[in-house]
């Protein structure tokens, strides 16, 4: 029998009233059903009874899981690679723009196949990566010559040694949510910057697709944030949100996957059309975007 993690208290506000609000399917690997619970006080949501860290690996074991496999297979994944080329430029510019003039050290957590780390190293940053998948670490080393550490490295790093820490769609995967955030505060320099990209459960597409929304991605996504509850979570760990920036490509990618989850026969076309509508909404209101980059500094 699989070991699972049961959440009794909301990880953000410690409220004990967190009823089930959705039942979502693992569309990627197993077809299993998982329940999503929501805090009645702060509205933070989480996947209940998710597999523990030692056993969740099998749920990532699919060629379609692109951040680990780097696959180009299929139309949706091909589009992902084109979008990644553009977003890499945006992320590298952002890291430089919001950090201090003397910043030089960068930690990327959940560095996957290493594209962002490699791009930052080319810009003369001193880079370190953390990635829990051994196979993916080996891939990044073979492709880019990057030496990436395992997950426990975060808890062994010295205090106030990093100018920039980045987590591009990673925090929602990490079992030790509060411990991780506390250690991010500890290792950042006092003028350091933390970038956290997260799916937005209050986005236009999340509201439209409900349990079929691809960014619930159970059980790989453990935590489901919106701008309001992430602000509360950040402040709990002595961070303040300096800025929120929309991830403009995500409405298209997530809509295509969500249409596939629904069983739509023309998922890619339907997703591109609906993704365009969601994208337009995000132009006028960042809080409606599928995913948001939060730029944080220490209080």
Describe this structure in words.
43% of the residues are buried. Strand 3 and strand 4 (45-47) form a beta hairpin. Helix 8 (250-262) packs across helix 9 (267-284). The strands form three sheets. The chain has a seven-stranded mixed β-sheet, sandwiched between helices. The chain has a single domain (4-298), classed as Vaccinia Virus protein VP39 (Rossmann fold, 3-Layer(aba) Sandwich), CATH 3.40.50.150. It has 299 residues and is α/β, with parallel strands linked by helices. The chain has helices at 66-69, 75-98, 115-122, 134-144, 177-187, 204-209, 227-236, 250-262, 267-284; strands spanning 4-5, 20-25, 33-38, 45-47, 50-51, 105-109, 126-130, 148-149, 162-168, 188-199, 223-224, 239-246, 291-298. The chain contains nine helices and 13 strands. It is 35% helix and 23% strand. It comes from Dysgonomonas alginatilytica. One of its GO terms (molecular function) is methyltransferase activity. This is Methyltransferase family protein.
Termini separation: 44 Å
- Name the helicity range: 25-40%
Total number of beta strands: 13
- Report Rg: 18 Å
Number of domains: 1
From the coordinates shown, what is the CATH architecture? 3-Layer(aba) Sandwich
Q: Look at the structure and give the mean pLDDT.
A: 93
Q: Element order, helices and strands?
A: EEEEEHHEHEHEEHEHEHEHHE
Instruction: Please summarize the sheet with the most strands.
Output: 7 strands, mixed
Reported by name, the CATH topology is Rossmann fold
Strand order of the largest sheet: 8-7-6-9-10-13-12
Count of DSSP H/I helices: 9
Shape: globular
Would you identify the CATH H-level superfamily? Vaccinia Virus protein VP39
**Secondary-structure content class:** alpha/beta
β-strand percent reads 15-25%
Low-confidence stretches: none
CATH class bucket:
Alpha Beta
């Amino acid at each position: 029998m699989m070991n699972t993690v049961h959440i009794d208290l909301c990880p953000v506000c410690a409220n004990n009233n967190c009823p089930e609000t959705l039942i979502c399917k693992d569309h990627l690997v197993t077809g299993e059903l998982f329940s999503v619970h929501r805090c009645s006080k702060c509205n933070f949501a989480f996947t209940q009874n998710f597999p523990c860290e030692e056993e969740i690996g099998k749920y990532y074991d699919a060629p379609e899981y692109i951040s680990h496999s780097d696959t180009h297979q299929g139309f949706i994944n091909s589009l992902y690679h084109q979008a990644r080329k553009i977003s890499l430029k945006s992320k590298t510019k952002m890291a430089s723009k919001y950090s201090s003039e003397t910043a030089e050290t960068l930690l990327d957590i959940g560095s996957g196949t290493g594209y962002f780390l490699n791009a930052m190293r080319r810009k003369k940053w001193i880079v370190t990566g953390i990635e829990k998948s051994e196979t993916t670490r080996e891939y990044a080393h073979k492709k880019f010559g990057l030496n990436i550490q395992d997950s426990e490295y975060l808890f062994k790093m010295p205090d106030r040694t990093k100018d920039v820490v980045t987590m591009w769609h990673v925090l929602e995967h990490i079992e030790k949510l509060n411990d991780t955030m506390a250690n991010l505060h500890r290792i950042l320099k006092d003028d350091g910057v933390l970038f956290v990209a997260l799916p937005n459960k209050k986005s236009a597409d999340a509201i439209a697709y409900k349990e079929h929304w691809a960014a619930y991605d159970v059980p790989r996504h453990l935590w489901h944030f919106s701008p309001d509850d992430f602000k509360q979570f950040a402040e709990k760990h002595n961070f303040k949100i300096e800025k929120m920036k929309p991830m403009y490509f995500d409405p298209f990618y997530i809509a295509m996957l969500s249409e596939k989850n629904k069983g739509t026969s023309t998922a890619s076309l339907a997703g591109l059309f609906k993704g365009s509508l969601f994208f337009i909404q995000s132009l006028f209101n960042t809080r409606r975007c599928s995913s948001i980059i939060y730029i944080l500094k220490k209080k």
